[in-house]
Design goal:
Jelly Rolls; transmembrane helix; eight-stranded antiparallel β-sheet; alpha+beta; seven-stranded antiparallel β-sheet; disulfide bond
Length: about 725
């Protein structure tokens, strides 16, 4: 049987990004696995379970019945959802009631017209944005209801549409399984109900941990009830070479898990037929201060032990003999009965599907500390692109502030679309940091370079970025200085890439030309330039890196860098002739993940950081993902789009009830047919034109048009779909490999 992780939190710690996953909240317990959507954000992990009730479900409207009952069927059983909500730190579910002459809660008799049914089939008389025991809606709490006499907007009983909506966040009551709507039997009464998916964040079980400080420390719990079946799983982390994890004794029966040596974990028990021991031997030491997972199971047929992903060790039970494990003593975690206890951390200890609260018990036990530190040793490798792993009490997070990336693992591109004439300048010296800087800013035109130039020069640079464009020539990136030194990355009139260095000592700037490759083809391209002294290494896309060397006469110091420009150079003083020519009309297209040494100028512009004061932008910078060729990703259909329901808080007045009467429907059908015919003709034309021009190599202009229109479509998809960038990222990686 497939082994699923216990929660979304566990998938995040395998370095997984947002997606649908199977989770098994009680291990090999009776619940079985369920499919949920895991949304990995920078600092939180959200688990989402969906149901089948359409948003804006209409009720009433000339209805005869007094009550209308809306049933919600989830993609999981109530017990499975309870397992998620009980281990979560916080859960919420959006609920909305739009009404026209249909009252919600407050009635003359005091019994609400409408209620919802939650966990354990209990009725609840509070609405979204309010809490248990308070028969009010959000507006009643905030005191801004349509009619101040009532505690819900709908209770004003107006003939115009009104709405009461908000989050239900008392997790012990979730999820909503039914909504019963009552005030519908008067002429003109209508209502629409929306319920979002249930979303939970955090997993208290996954990080429930204790640190054993001395080899005689232990925690004790009530006797383990595992007579016919035992399923024990936990994570451990240690630098000690041996110690007992846990033990529970009977008269002669017992069950025990221990670290026997630096490479051996042992699972032993006796059910009355004599002791049985199963040992897993690891090729690598297990006392490496990394997290290791242990899973031990025993039933009447067999027993098994697994450590990490090492092969499962299985032992069949004898056909005759005793099968019941009879235990009497308390369960000891750590040192038991004078044995040498485990030194280090144990986390997420589950026995027959129940997580033991090590943390609470450790708070009152000498020699044992609640929680664990040092998660980065195990999980730091998931922080990519130079992101730094930061320790947290329960887990870790990736700090992407020194990178040009974003997202929980620093793998999400931060990019922007530049329209013609737009540019961005990043000043290396923040405005007015010191007198010297102030002097240099006022005396830029001064003839004395000693005063103007802040004393900083570079012996090496590292530059990396990604771009896509269909227009050439253009300036992609330019680094200016307080001296004649500069560095530039250009696309020349033929669409070829050129890197240009001017560090002094040579008559002409030093150029690296990448001929025979059209870079202005609308596809994304990655550029990495590293200079160390005289040596320059350039890597383009997935081609092997190539090395170049500055001429012997060239200076190797980039003196007094001043600013970095993207899209266009707007700098005072003399400017290189070619660059001046390429500068108009300017770059059009996409730039992303721009990084120059420790500076990420685009990210500073798009994400408010302490570096944002260094940035000046001309034009409106539209965030965009340049990571994939624009036309390869169709917008997600509502059915497959995991975010579709998240826009629950928006109102969909026409969702599902758009075409009401026959006239509208007919005109819609005719319109649809005409649209299909026109679309077919256009497709045929495009195909013919591409076929005719194929040998002339001009077809990239078609792509250009596509790229531009897709840019705005991309932006549109991204606005609706925060996960879109993640999706592109994956496809792009495959393309680059």
């Amino acid at each position: 049987s497939a082994i699923y992780e216990l929660s979304c939190e566990a998938y995040k710690h395998l370095g997984k990004t947002s997606n649908y996953y199977w989770i098994d909240p009680d291990g090999s317990g009776t619940l079985g696995p369920l499919k949920v959507y895991c949304n990995m954000t920078e600092d939180k992990v959200w688990t989402t379970v969906y149901h089948d009730l359409q948003m804006q479900t209409s009720v009433g409207g000339n209805s005869v019945e007094k009550l209308s009952v809306l049933q919600l069927n989830y993609s999981a059983t109530m017990d499975q959802i309870s397992a998620i909500t009980s281990s979560a730190e916080y859960c919420e579910q959006f609920i909305s009631y739009s009404c026209k002459m249909s009252r919600l809660l407050n009635t003359p008799e005091g019994n609400p017209y409408t209620w919802w049914v939650g966990k354990a089939n209990e009725k609840h008389y509070y609405w979204g944005g309010s809490g248990p025991g308070i028969q009010k809606c959000a507006c009643g709490i905030e005191r801004n209801c349509t009619d101040p006499k009532y505690y819900c907007n709908c209770d004003a009983d107006y003939k115009q549409w009104r709405k009461d909506a908000g989050m239900l966040s008392y997790k012990e009551h979730l999820p909503v399984s039914q909504v019963v709507v009552g005030d519908l039997d008067r002429p003109g009464s209508e209502a629409k109900v929306s319920v979002g998916p249930v979303r939970c964040q955090g997993d208290r079980n996954y990080w429930n941990a204790a640190s054993f400080v001395t080899s005689s420390s232990y925690l004790h719990f009530s006797t383990f009830q595992g007579e016919t079946s035992a399923d024990i799983s936990f994570y451990f982390k240690t630098s000690a070479s041996d110690g007992v994890f846990l033990e529970n004794l009977g008269n002669t029966d017992f069950i025990k898990l221990e670290l026997k040596s630096a490479t051996e974990v042992s699972f032993s028990f006796d059910v009355g037929n004599g002791p049985v021991e199963i040992v897993v031997r690891s090729p690598n030491p297990l006392n490496d201060d990394q997290w290791h997972r242990v899973n031990a199971e025993r039933n009447v047929k067999q027993a098994s032990l697994q450590v990490d992903q090492l092969p499962l060790e299985v032992r069949k039970a004898p056909t005759e003999g005793h099968t019941r494990l009879e235990l009497y003593s308390q369960l000891y975690v750590g040192a038991a009965g004078g044995q040498r206890g485990f030194l280090g951390c144990i986390r997420s200890l589950r026995m027959n599907g129940v997580t033991l609260d090590l943390e609470e018990r450790a708070k009152v036990t000498p020699g044992v500390k609640p929680g664990c530190s040092g998660h980065c040793t195990s999980y730091g490798m998931y922080c990519a692109n130079g992101g730094k792993c930061v320790e947290k009490y329960n887990g870790y997070s990736c700090d992407c502030s020194k990178t040009a990336y974003d997202g929980p693992f620093c793998i999400k591109d931060v990019g922007a679309f530049f329209e013609e004439g737009m540019w961005l300048r990043y000043n290396f010296h923040s405005p007015g940091t010191s007198v010297k800087d102030l002097v240099s800013r006022t005396l830029l035109s001064s003839a004395d370079p000693e005063i103007t130039a802040p004393d900083l020069s570079l012996n090496k640079e590292e530059l990396s970025f990604s771009f896509s464009t269909t227009k050439s020539p253009c300036v992609l990136l330019y680094v200016s200085s307080y001296t004649p030194d500069f560095m530039a990355v250009l696309v020349n009139p033929n669409g070829n890439l050129q890197i240009r260095y001017n560090l002094g000592g040579t008559k002409e700037p030093y150029n690296i030309d990448i001929d025979h490759r059209n870079m202005a083809n609308g596809q994304p391209h990655t550029v990495n330039v590293t200079r160390n002294g005289r040596d320059i290494v350039l890597q383009l896309d997935h081609y092997p890196p190539t090395s170049y060397s500055l001429p012997a006469t060239s200076d190797i110091q980039f003196n007094s860098p001043k600013a970095l420009f993207l899209g266009k150079v707007i700098e005072i003083g003399k400017i290189d002739q070619d660059i001046y020519k390429y500068n108009t009309p300017g770059f059009t297209g996409c730039l992303s993940r721009v990084q120059f040494n420790q500076i990420a100028p685009l990210k500073a512009a798009l994400r408010p950081t302490n570096a944002s004061s260094h940035v000046h932008i001309q034009g409106e910078l539209v965030e965009s993902n340049c990571g994939a060729s624009p036309l390869t990703i169709p917008p997600m259909s509502a059915a497959t789009d995991p975010w579709h329901l998240d826009s629950a808080s928006a109102d969909f007045p026409y969702n599902g009830q758009a075409i009401g009467d026959g006239v509208n429907r007919n005109s819609a059908i005719i319109g649809g047919v005409i649209a299909v015919v026109i679309f077919t003709i256009l497709c045929t034309l495009v195909f013919l034109i591409r076929y005719m021009f194929r040998h002339k190599g001009t077809y990239h202009t078609n792509e250009a048009k596509g790229a531009e229109s897709a840019e705005s479509a991309d932006a549109a998809i991204m606005n609706n779909d925060p996960n879109f960038t993640e999706t592109i990222d994956e496809s792009k990686k495959e393309w680059l490999i």
